[in-house]
């Protein structure tokens, strides 16, 4: 297969080269996905510069999320089958034509998302779900403040928090970004460049914050 290889650590993208490499081999609890699309995350740029080391045993190629079609499944995998279109959170390897992925990190393509767009779904979804719901236990009726509401993380957080019945406040640095957050369901939008968000939040919540 072909993969994007970091030929030497460096700041310039020219250190990335498309090269022929060996196909990945799947373990019993993994699936093999033919990659349709991948996404760019901060760790990918750090890895290119030699400042991020992938977890031991994972692919040496960049790419922390992808979408594609399952080509093979390990003998212990029951949920997925060959031909399924999926997206996945990766420890690495998304910048390649094929990637081996633990079955537990694979997700179905959400309704309404194209296969290509789904490549950018796993990182934001898993980050928001793990921090906001698994760790902080956000629940219906609570007030939730999101800084950088128009970011990838922010836009996902706005929508899922509203779905679960929370009152959503966001900060952003332009009226255009605030309008986008409002369109996604944010209840209160605050331009942090022109307004004191602490004072505004206290005002909107009767001093509770």
Q: What key phrases describe this protein's structure?
A:
209 residues; alpha+beta; five-stranded antiparallel β-sheet; three-stranded parallel β-sheet; 10 strands; 27% strand; globular
* Overall average residue pLDDT: 97
> What percent of residues adopt helix (DSSP H or I)?
10-25%
Shape: globular
Sheet of most strands? 5 strands, antiparallel
What is the string of helix and strand elements? EEEHEEEEHEHEHEH
Radius of gyration: 20 Å
The strand order across the widest sheet is 6-3-4-5-7
- Multimeric organization: single chain
Low-pLDDT sequence parts: none
> Which class best fits the helix and strand makeup?
alpha+beta
Number of beta-strand segments: 10
Number of helices: 5
Q: Span between N and C termini? A: 53 Å
The percentage of residues in β strands lies in 25-35%
Present the secondary structure layout.
Layout: E1 2-6, E2 16-20, E3 30-38, H1 42-48, E4 65-73, E5 85-89, E6 98-102, E7 106-108, H2 122-135, E8 143-147, H3 152-163, E9 167-172, H4 175-184, E10 188-191, H5 197-204
Parallel strand pairs: 8-9, 9-10
Antiparallel strand pairs: 1-2, 3-4, 3-6, 4-5, 5-7
Helix pairs in contact: 2-3
């Amino acid at each position: 297969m072909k993969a994007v290889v970091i030929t030497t650590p460096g700041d310039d993208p020219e250190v990335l080269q498309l090269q022929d490499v060996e196909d990945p081999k799947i373990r019993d609890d993994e699936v093999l996905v033919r990659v349709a699309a991948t996404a760019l995350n901060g760790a990918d740029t750090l890895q290119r510069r030699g400042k991020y080391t992938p977890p031991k045993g994972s692919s040496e190629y960049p790419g922390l999320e992808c979408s594609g079609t399952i080509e093979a499944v390990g003998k212990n995998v029951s949920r997925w089958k060959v031909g399924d279109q999926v997206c996945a959170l990766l420890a690495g390897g998304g910048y390649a034509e094929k990637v081996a992925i633990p079955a537990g990190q694979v997700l179905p393509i959400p309704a309404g998302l194209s296969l290509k767009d789904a490549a950018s779904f796993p990182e934001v979804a898993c980050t928001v779900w793990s921090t906001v719901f698994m760790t902080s236990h956000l629940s219906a009726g609570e007030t939730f403040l999101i800084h950088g509401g128009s970011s990838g993380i922010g836009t996902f957080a706005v929508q899922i928090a509203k779905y679960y019945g929370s009152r959503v406040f966001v900060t952003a640095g332009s009226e255009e970004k605030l309008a986008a957050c409002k369109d996604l369901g944010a209840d209160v939008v605050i331009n942090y460049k022109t307004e004191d968000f602490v004072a505004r939040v206290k005002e909107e919540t009767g001093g509770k914050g």
